[in-house]
Design brief:
70% of the residues lie in helices and 0% in strands. It folds into 2 domains: 54 residues, Homeodomain-like (Arc Repressor Mutant, subunit A), CATH 1.10.10; 160 residues, Orthogonal Bundle (Tetracycline Repressor, domain 2), CATH 1.10.357.10. α8 packs antiparallel against α9. It is built from 10 helices and no strands. The chain is globular, with a radius of gyration of 21 Å. The chain is mainly α. It comes from Thermincola potens (strain JR).
Length: 217
């Protein structure tokens, strides 16, 4: 990795200062009550400079989530990858993610209000915005190498499908007030993803599916 220049380090320091200031204000006063003007004043940067770094408050939240994921991966990923199975690696990671959402419910709602955050950046650039897709892909790839995950699908496809299911679970958790912990919903998704919902005595074969298709179309 190339070392940052002095100018790049200064820009990154300003970016982090803005982000940390904004998140502190969001948590103290609420997302809606915090304005870009207030963030500019508290961070001691010109309003124009703030908009050069972040076009909106939502963009700040997205960047913050990306920073949280990157920080976690840097500090804990080797320990995650040492766990004995793909299922256990995901179980460990999902408990951490669920805890963050539960502790930061308002930020969570802002973040997942746009599904693009789970796959792309704000301008649809084909790069994982928060690093989760990359991390999930790594876990599935290791599972394929060790033989406890099918190689019928690419590791990236598996990562994206699991992220989609987790997005749905998070969305329903935010919308419903039944008090069920998010971690329980995540573990249900994980069980469904790895164990499926079909019973051995109720599996429909491909040939039977073809018969059903021609019966209806």
């Amino acid at each position: 990795m190339c070392e940052m220049t002095r100018r790049e380090r200064k820009k990154e320091a300003t970016r982090l200062k803005i982000m940390e200031t904004a998140i502190r204000l969001f948590k103290k006063h609420g997302f809606e009550q915090t304005t870009m003007n207030r963030i500019s004043e508290e961070a001691d940067v010109a309003l124009g400079t703030l908009y050069n770094y972040f076009p909106s408050k939502e963009a700040i939240v997205g960047a913050y989530v990306g920073w949280v994921v990157a920080d976690y991966r840097e500090k804990n990923w080797p320990r995650v990858m040492e766990l004995p199975s793909t299922y256990e690696r995901f179980q460990f990671v999902l408990l951490i993610i669920a805890h963050w959402h539960e502790e930061n419910k308002e930020l969570s709602e802002i973040y997942i209000s746009d599904l693009r955050n789970f796959y792309y950046g704000p301008n649809w650039e084909p790069v994982p915005k928060d690093g989760l897709e990359e991390g999930f892909t790594d876990i599935f790839k290791m599972g394929q190498e060790k033989g406890d995950v099918t190689d019928r699908f690419s590791s990236q496809t598996l990562a994206r499908q699991l992220l989609g299911a987790l997005y749905s679970a998070t969305l329903h958790w935010l919308a419903e007030s039944d008090g069920e912990p998010l971690k329980d919903r995540y573990l249900e998704v994980l069980d469904l993803f790895f164990k499926g919902c079909g019973r051995n005595d109720g599996v429909v074969s491909v040939s039977n599916l073809e018969v059903l298709y021609y019966m209806f179309f």
